[in-house]
Amino acid sequence: MGLFDNLFGSSSSEAAPKGSPFAFSYSFRPMRLTGRSNSSVDLLVDLRNASNSPQMCSLVVELPKALGFDGVGLHKTKELRLGTLEAGAQKSLPVSICGTSQTQPGVYRLKVTVYSHYRDYAHVLNSVSKIIELRVV
Question: What is the CATH number of the domain that holds 9?
Answer without folding.
Answer: 2.60.40.10
